[in-house]
Design goal:
mainly alpha
Length: 199
């Protein structure tokens, strides 16, 4: 009698375990299927963001010409802009050159975009292997893409500069989040149009 009671309890445990396994597998399947339906909560991050993180969030070497195209592809995914077919020229230069173009005096600028010329990147930056340096280059590529899309051209120069900087920092911050970097950036300079930036 005692044997039958143990056997009965044992069978009940097996059946309960099987039922729980079936329920769990159906739930996982339903979640996977549901995440593909537009308008339904999806798993985070998206496939595109996972690809970006895998491609650009690691410190493996990426040749500069390939990296520029990868970063433009990232901008295609995380911004509203139409991406030009031709990438800009990117040159590594001495820090003093970046200072001259970006600030006209000694400053901490690491890169600068100049319309019609391309991006000047401080030679100390190694975006080929450094994720933060990639974000700096991406920031300047945002300015290139803004330029090519005539973003905010109707505004006066200082206002346009300020708004474009705000957006470039926000996109750089988003990129760093996507690739899993612990570094964050923010634009804190106040908006002012009496600083000599007006033309």
């Amino acid at each position: 009698m005692r044997y039958l009671a143990h056997r009965s309890r044992y069978c009940w445990l097996i059946l309960t375990s099987m039922f729980m396994c079936l329920t769990l597998s159906n739930t996982v399947f339903a979640e996977e299927r549901t995440s593909q339906i537009p308008g339904v909560y999806s798993n985070y991050p998206s496939d595109g963001e996972r690809d970006l993180s895998y491609k650009l969030g690691k410190t493996h070497y990426i040749p500069m010409d390939v990296l520029i195209l990868d970063l433009l592809d990232a901008l295609d995914q995380i911004t509203k802009y139409r991406i030009p077919k031709e990438p800009p020229t990117v040159q590594k230069v001495a820090h003093s050159v970046v200072e001259q173009y970006a600030c006209q005096k000694p400053c901490a600028a690491l890169a600068v975009y100049r319309a019609g010329e391309g991006v000047y990147l401080d030679e100390s930056m190694k975006p080929e292997t450094n994720v933060f340096a990639r974000s700096v280059l991406l920031h300047e590529l945002v300015h290139y893409v803004q330029d090519m899309n005539d973003e905010l051209v109707s505004l006066k120069d200082c206002e346009r500069w300020y708004r474009r900087e705000q957006e470039a920092y926000a996109i750089q911050k988003r990129f760093l989040e996507i690739v899993g970097s612990q570094i964050r950036v923010a634009y804190s300079q106040g908006q002012a149009c009496d600083t000599g930036l007006d033309k």
